[in-house]
């Protein structure tokens, strides 16, 4: 039998201007525009291979080695949209194989533990949609493809681009103008790095899908956020990226994370995503910026206790002097820094920071953290020769 | 020498609609009106005796046995206002001793550890002002006196009344219409009880005086709270008290506590008063209300991690079945409940709650709590024969 395959990788993105609230749940249309930084894929990525063949009897998905259902309405939306675009192509060129009528096999793997609580659905749906678009040889632009990914998982639309990405909320009822666009490519501001402090959560958080609608319907402060706070911040943050103004970018990022979590707390009953460790990290970041009398680090928290710290390469020693001092017992350092690098951070702390430091470091903070992930801004989905599907059988290789 | 003395007790009050933000720092004029419940004085009260005599050489204050300064601008405001009112009396009746020109000795004691982190300044300033007004035999109404207490500590104006109290923010620049009024006396709704869970705080919180101005100047959501949320809530909460509608009173109380803490989190840098134990208590209260499918408890948190739970006498066994189950290892139970009472709570939990309970209780929650204070709605400042000042010497007895 002839089996057609295509593969791609897709990145994780971490919002600096948060998506929280849908105006249309079926189409995943947001109540406000958002902005994110796409992270490097050597640290965090989804690899997805797709195959189609006249001989396949049903759509099937293997996720991290396990057969999973494709029944979810969101996944079906994505597959239907992609098949419709393929059908349009086929109707104009009878030489094309009628893939739009064939079943799909999808095999997907993450290179990071989903246990880390890092939203993997964004990378997952972006990879799914981009891989199938590639298989179908669709001519649509990345922004057009992002609308399909958006229907799978809102934030997935931002993972279709690399670098600095905006999700424009749009105003059309059918979502035709709610899409991701590139604010700036990775190459515009390649010095942006990220340190993710994976915080151990005692309990499962409220799922973001239900959590955000709970906020929309119950928070008195939420309307102020989406109507009077975010629209101006959206323009300011885009400009801060275009101007490579880290000071402004960092303040807007920290303010927006706090604003988002404030509307969660203002929900009824309240939703809590940050815990005491998250708050200790927030205070530490402000202490670090105060110590250097300069904004060298920004924190942001998604719908969970994990902290993502953004900083510029030029300030790495200054920041890591503190972060390694506090979190050196946590795993994740050796994969990115040499013994010499780490020694340099420690000596900078001992010789330059400690003598001047006017506050105490929370010595127990590291106990609330399970691991450190050190990464940076990265590109969008990448072609790959690695294929997870056996072209002979159309099934997963492993 | 002839020494004139007067003594009074004054209560603590815990806001159910929060005071957070000043429009005038000198006069303690708030950015929104607030509502509170006055708590019983056998559990929490300040006893203040004042004395004046031609022979006194300086104003002096003994607070909980220690000589303290009276220099603070706020205290001086209170003393000056009271002396001005006394002088007016004297000018109309030459037979009155010219106390307005004499020095004051003030002796004040709390019956609760200030360590508990329960705002004692409200009871303290209310007692100070009421005792001197009594010494001076001022004819002014309690609301008039509350304006003077307000200048000492904003929330102190609410401790001039018992029962259910509103602080009307007023609009005059001189504060002449920013005063406390009685929403309903204790006798209107005497079944209101309060359980205070004193949460051990690792670090000192941001002082509320500086904290609230930080929120006023940096929170994007704060203006929404004071202009569009609190004014309507103020009217609804007063009505819920007049109607004895606990369900509505409780929801408004919980929503307002969350709204206040949300604006703290939205401040930049953010302010955190609630900790993980506070949040566990919030979740427990919602679980309890869900379990009974009825709102039997409301939580509220001031500028610190302590939880104050309001409930009605009729629901005491239902609520305490849970609260004693979780916090039985904490001190404070025996002073209010007999062994039989506590056994009744435990058996209600074992026989009625446990078999039906669909969630787990956080077994470690009690570790974050230092003690339980069980109290209820109470009256305003009380006359007392107990005098802390030796009339012969004009000095503290002890």
UniProtKB/TrEMBL annotation, chains A, B:
Entry coiled-coil feature ranges: none
Catalytic activity: (R)-5-diphosphomevalonate + ATP = isopentenyl diphosphate + ADP + phosphate + CO2
Gene Ontology MF terms: ATP binding; diphosphomevalonate decarboxylase activity
Biological processes annotated in GO: isopentenyl diphosphate biosynthetic process, mevalonate pathway; sterol biosynthetic process
Pfam families: MDD_C, MVD-like_N
Annotated ranges, domain Diphosphomevalonate decarboxylase-like N-terminal: 10-180
Its EC number(s): 4.1.1.33
Residues covered by the Mvd1 C-terminal domain: 195-382
Enzyme class, broadest EC rank: lyase
Pathway assignment: Isoprenoid biosynthesis; isopentenyl diphosphate biosynthesis via mevalonate pathway; isopentenyl diphosphate from (R)-mevalonate: step 3/3
CC annotations in GO: cytosol
Keywords: ATP-binding, Lipid biosynthesis, Lipid metabolism, Lyase, Nucleotide-binding, Steroid biosynthesis, Steroid metabolism, Sterol biosynthesis, Sterol metabolism
InterPro entries documented for this protein: GHMP_kinase_C_sf, Mev_decarb, Mev_diP_decarb, MVD-like_N, Mvd1_C, Ribosomal_Su5_D2-typ_SF, Ribsml_uS5_D2-typ_fold_subgr
Family, similarity comment: Belongs to the diphosphomevalonate decarboxylase family.
Protein's name according to its UniProt entry: Diphosphomevalonate decarboxylase
Protein species of origin: Lachancea nothofagi CBS 11611
């Amino acid at each position: 039998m002839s089996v057609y395959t295509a593969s791609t990788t897709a990145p994780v993105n971490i919002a600096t201007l948060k998506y929280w609230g849908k105006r249309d749940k079926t189409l995943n249309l947001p109540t406000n525009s958002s902005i994110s930084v796409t992270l490097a894929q050597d640290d965090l990525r989804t690899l997805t291979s797709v195959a189609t063949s006249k001989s396949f009897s049903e759509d099937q998905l293997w996720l991290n080695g396990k057969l999973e259902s494709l029944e979810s309405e969101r996944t079906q939306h994505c597959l239907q949209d992609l098949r419709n675009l393929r059908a349009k192509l086929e109707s104009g060129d009878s030489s094309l194989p009628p893939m739009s009528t064939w079943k799909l096999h999808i095999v997907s793997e993450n290179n990071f533990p989903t246990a880390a609580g890092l939203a993997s659905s964004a990378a997952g749906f972006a990879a799914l949609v981009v891989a199938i678009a590639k298989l179908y040889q669709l001519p649509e632009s990345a922004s057009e493809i992002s609308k399909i990914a958006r229907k799978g998982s809102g934030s997935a639309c931002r993972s279709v681009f690399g670098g600095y990405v905006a999700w424009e909320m749009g105003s059309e009822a059918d979502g035709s103008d709610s899409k991701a666009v590139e604010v700036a490519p990775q190459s515009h501001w390649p010095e942006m790095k990220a340190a993710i402090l994976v915080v151990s959560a005692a309990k499962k958080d409220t799922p973001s899908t239900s959590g955000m609608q709970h906020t929309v319907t119950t928070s008195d402060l939420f309307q102020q956020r989406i109507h009077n706070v975010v629209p101006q911040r959206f323009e300011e943050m885009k400009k801060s990226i275009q101007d490579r103004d880290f000071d402004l970018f960092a303040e807007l990022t920290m303010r927006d994370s706090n604003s988002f979590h404030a509307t969660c707390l203002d929900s009824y009953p309240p939703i809590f995503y940050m815990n005491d460790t998250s708050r200790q990290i927030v205070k530490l970041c402000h202490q670090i910026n105060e110590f250097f009398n300069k904004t060298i680090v920004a924190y942001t928290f998604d719908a969970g206790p994990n902290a993502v710290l953004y900083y510029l390469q030029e300030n790495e020693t200054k920041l890591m002097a503190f972060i390694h001092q506090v979190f050196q017992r946590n795993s994740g350092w050796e994969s990115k820094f040499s013994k010499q690098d780490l020694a340099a951070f420690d000596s900078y702390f001992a010789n330059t920071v400690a003598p001047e430091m006017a506050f105490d470091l929370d010595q127990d903070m590291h106990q609330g953290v399970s691991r450190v992930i050190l990464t940076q801004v990265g590109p969008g989905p990448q072609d790959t020769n690695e294929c997870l599907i056996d072209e002979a059988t159309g099934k997963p290789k492993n």
